[in-house]
Amino acid sequence: MAITHPNQRSERRFCAARSASVWLPALAAFAFATASWAEDARKGAVPEKEVQAKLQYCKVCHGVSAQGFRGYYPIPRLAGQQPTYVENQLQAFIEHRRTNNVMFNVAHSLSPSMVTALAANFNALNPQPLGGAPRQLVATGGKIFQDGLPDQDIAACAACHGPDAAGAGIIPRLAGQLYPYVIDKLVNWGKERGQNPKTPDTSAIMSPVAHSLNKSQIEAVAAYVSTLK
What we know:
Blueprint: H1 6-42, H2 48-62, H3 83-94, H4 101-108, H5 112-124, H6 138-147, H7 158-161, H8 179-187, H9 189-192, H10 207-212, H11 215-227
């Protein structure tokens, strides 16, 4: 059973208060887009054979059981990911809110029904984490994740991602995510996320956190979440 520390509760309140001005307009825009997406998806289910074929295509890059791929360019784990987050990010690639030319081409070719089916299938997968992070960083990363860094005005990651890093809704699951991938995303957050100023983006919530953590702190958090199942 997870225990909520007093300072974690404080950080949870701090996170919510600090993020409200970013959450509300972005969430309203996302809710509208999601409603339209869901309506399109309900118009017709994708045949299971087509879904499985597309899943196999995705696994060419994202690894067996979508557990991620360690390589020169680390490719993220999608297994167990929150379906709403997957749908949001695919739409972000299409709208150029998030930059990745490969994923733009992939996402642009998917129907709303296919996206919904893929997100549900990825969420149901639960392979073991690939691991590989420096074990000596895990304890420090766990403390930052669970308690934050109050002296540096940095909220606990658990305040939004949950004490088990499972995420919820548009907040992504971090548990089991690849160590080098988490590092790369946090270090380069402002270069990839929230790139379309005309479209509100929930990624703005993470910007102050990503920019406040130094490289060693990022590496520690990445090591910790990569060990979680």
